[in-house]
Amino acid sequence: MTSINQFCLWLEQTALSETIRSIAWFVPAVQTVHILAIATVIGAVLMLSLRLLALVGHPTRPPVGGRPPPCRGRYMEPAAPVESPAIFLRRAGLRRLIASSLAACWLSATAPIALAQEDAIPPAKDTIFARKIVMGTIDMNMDEVETMLTPGGKLDQTEAREHLDIISVLLMAFPHMFPAATNQWKPGVDRDAALDTFAAPELWASFGDFYKRATAASKVAFDASRAKTVGELKPLVAELRTACNACHASYLKAQ
Length: 255
Fold this sequence. Notes:
Radius of gyration: 32 Å
CATH class of the largest domain: Mainly Alpha
Order of helices and strands: HHHHHHHHH
Number of helices: 9
Strand content: under 5%
CATH topology of the largest domain: Four Helix Bundle (Hemerythrin (Met), subunit A)
Number of domains: 2
CATH architecture of the largest domain: Up-down Bundle
Largest sheet: none
Number of strands: 0
């Protein structure tokens, strides 16, 4: 589990990941190509199935120049037996049923994807509220650890490790809760403490720096959760607090 966490931290810091995060249209473009690729594959399967069912195209090539092909051999081959109307209608009905089923499968496979893409973005106020909850949870867990390390505090290594693990995971997810639609801070207006953002517009202007700060803080919290002695734990917790305060000073508005 530790190696997976470290791999995720490394992957988030690669140049490719930072480039993808910095380009607003990249993810929607990839999703669009993905949906079109699915529609193309299913459409090709549908057309092939219709061709095999003889519902599209010509089953035989017409004679050249309107003349029948020359007879090969001494005798002409007998004509194919004529199918009765009842059998033909039954076969045609079966073909239409299969074709309708294939078309329904194609529509049911592609339509929900497109609808899901339209409804995938939550309201900005809900996202702001959710990240305030995340930040409050980080602060609460941080306070618990710092209280254990104060003079006279009682350090519980297991409990401290759990708090720091939670902080590390939440800090890893935190930057992903700042879509462009939540950049709503304006000076001199009344704000709801729960639903209105206090994040500075500079955060989105320097999102790469903000992402690096959050990722680095997540790694510090993870390292602190693996500290084996108080001497190892205290400087890491102090470093984590310094990182949090520096990020707040750069990207958090006081009012």
